Each structure stands twice: as C-alpha cells, then as structure tokens.
Amino acid sequence: MDSIYTDGTYLKNNPQWHADDSAWKAAHVATILERHALAPASVAEVGCGAGEVLRELSLRLGPSSHFVGYEISPDAYRLCAHKSNGHIAFHVEDPFTFLRKLRARGRHKVFHIPLELSALTVARAGPLLDARRRVGHLHHYSRETALATLEDCGYKVVDHFYTSGRTELDKPGWKTQALKWPRKALFSVAPDAAARLLGGYSLLVLAE
C-alpha cells in the first residue's frame, strides 16, 4: 500500500509531527528507565518523527549515551536532520516479523503502544478508521493484546504502565475535553476499565 508517511499526507495532517508531545513522551520513557536503574549506552528510536523525543532523552540521559533515530518519511527527516544523523527508512506492516527481528538488537526495549481498542472506539468505528487515515495505524491494540503480541514474539515484559495524552496534556477538541474528567475519575479507581471502556490511553512497556 502507498504510505502516508512518504507521500506528504502525514505532514499535511500533522504539521508539527507531534513534536509538542515529545517532552511528555520522553519523561515517561525516562521514568521507566529510572525505575529499573537503566542507563543505556545507546538508544535507538524506530519512527523518530521530528526527532524531539530523542533530543529530550539526550538532555535527560546526558552525553554518555548515543542516540540514533530511524524514520521512513523524507518530510520527518527534513524536520530532524539537524538534530541527529544516521537515519534509515522502512515501514512496518507486519508487526510480528518486525518484533522478532528487533528482539536481537540490544537487551532492553521500550514500547509506547496506543491502545485504540476500547468499547467506545469499537461502538463508534469512526475513530479506528480515522487513526488509519490520519496517522497510518494499521494495527489496533488493547492492553491485553499488546502484551500478548510481545510475549508471542519472544519478549519478557519487565514493566508496563498506562500513559494518557488525552488527560495529561491539554489536547484540543470538545470530545476530548468532554471525556477528560470521566477518564480521570474512572482511571483513579479502575485503570484497566478506563482503558477498555473509554480509551484515550497508551501502554509504555519495558521488555527484554
């Protein structure tokens, strides 16, 4: 299939390439590394976009770590070329083959997986198709299927926790704002139920 990452569509839909979320994402990655006293000598990000997550991580981890970003999109490369080098291009359509090949590269992996399968998104259907059109998501996960996919590909899950750009960041849109407090309220007493029913969450996973 033609890729929205290479034909200019993704840049049109997302002019900043989510750079405004990068400090938030990097903070969560740093948290899970610190929880396990991990200080990696090298960090590689697959799908580095504008390169801001790597830049933020480099500020947190310091000069002793080496950072490399991999990105398929020439538009994203133009955004991040001045921040780092050593990029390579590829598009992941088969997650199982990709995950199995990735497993041999380094000991620890951190995955940030959008949990787009929820009662709300399945009932409406539109959000899943929108994610496919707007950001190119070909596969949709719940917490359980995300962890099962990693385990099926030979990974040992060391740690994981939810993140939520819909509640932790000031995201625009009346639907997002209307669901912000219900999501927070339900999450405070039943995190898994909040993710399964209302959506709006991702899963940060540390795996070996």
Your description of this structure?
By secondary structure, the chain is of the alpha+beta class. It contains eleven helices and five strands. The chain has helices at 9-13, 22-35, 52-61, 74-80, 95-102, 119-124, 126-135, 143-152, 165-168, 174-189, 191-197; strands at 42-46, 66-70, 109-115, 157-163, 201-207. It has a three-stranded antiparallel beta sheet with strand order 3-5-4, with helices on both faces. Helix 2 (22-35) crosses helix 3 and helix 10 packs antiparallel against helix 11 (191-197). The longest helix has 16 residues, at 174-189. The protein is globular. Mean pLDDT is 84; it is low at 85-90.
Describe how the helices and strands are arranged.
Layout: H1 9-13, H2 22-35, E1 42-46, H3 52-61, E2 66-70, H4 74-80, H5 95-102, E3 109-115, H6 119-124, H7 126-135, H8 143-152, E4 157-163, H9 165-168, H10 174-189, H11 191-197, E5 201-207
Parallel strand pairs: 1-2
Antiparallel strand pairs: 3-5, 4-5
Helix pairs in contact: 2-3, 10-11
Overview in brief:
The protein has helices at residues 9-13, 22-35, 52-61, 74-80, 95-102, 119-124, 126-135, 143-152, 165-168, 174-189, 191-197, and strands at 42-46, 66-70, 109-115, 157-163, 201-207. The protein has 208 residues and is of the alpha+beta class. The chain starts with 8 loop residues before the first helix and ends with a strand.
